[in-house]
Amino acid sequence: MEIWDQFISLEGKVAMITGSGSGIGLAVSRLMAKYGAGIAMIDISKVCADEADKLCQTGAQAHFFPCDVSEEAQVTRTVEAVMERFGRIDILVNNAAVMVRKTVVDATVEDWDRSMNIGLKGTFLCSKYVIPIMMEQKQGVIINTASGAAIKGVPDAAAYNAAKGGVTALTRSMAVDFGEYGIRVNCVCPGDIMTPMLLEEGIQTRKITTTAPRTQKEKEEMEQFLASCGSHRPLRRIATAEEIAYTFLFLATDMSAYATGGSFIVDGGRCS
Q1: Which of 193, 199, 200, 196 is nearest to 241 (CA)?
Q2: Number of domains present in the structure of the chain
Q3: Which residue is catalytic, options 35, 129, 160, 246?
Q4: Which residues pair with 39 in a beta bridge?
Q5: Domain range spanning residue 24?
Q6: How far apart are CA 203 and CA 245, in angstroms?
Q7: Interatomic CA distance for residues 241 and 195, integer angstroms
Q8: Residue range 160-211, pLDDT digits in tens
Q9: pTM, to two decimals
Q10: Known catalytic membership, residue 160
């Protein structure tokens, strides 16, 4: 390995990544595996098991752990299972979340609780049970997936905006509390990305009628929707999950050794 490459190596590290069955979580899992990390893939979807198998076929160490991050008992069991299999946790990526496109008037209490329980409570629970492991190891990295919505609100998405705002505040709090143990905590604030969550958002806002367009009308609707998501950004496009994943790689490696408590905006310039 060339001397400058040591700063981007994850050899010998273990990354626990929530919401890793698709979207950003899957892209981050693939990228960190490429740079040498063992990957604990956390998701409620069994599709994630297939993705873990695919990573193993490339020579990576990856394993699927089914877990609802909003349930404390499931989180504690999962952290124990990850430790039993890998023996350590060096990187925690709190990525699991849901999008509900409703105002505070239209949202139900169930909508609000679901957004908070997965997006914010899940971040709290996973951090709560992984940080003691990192404290004992005297090092660790936590990367939380926030959103540009935490900085510049998305219309008709009150619960999502609030949950992601909470993630940025929790990030700063944990960075202050655990820096002395060699634990760095940062968050990434992406803009619109070509992921299943974005397509679900399109369904909720009635801008598209299907996530798998077949007819010419459906294909045109999809093109118009994706174009509209990027039209108000200086870069005039949305991102791919793979592009966003490189910010997570930067924050997970020694390239960012002095960065903690930060919110890294990667949104094509919307929040500028």
Answers
A1: 193
A2: 1
A3: 160
A4: 15, 62
A5: 13-192+240-266
A6: 25
A7: 7
A8: 999 999 999 999 999 999 999 999 999 999 988 877 877 787 888 888 788 8
A9: 0.91
A10: yes
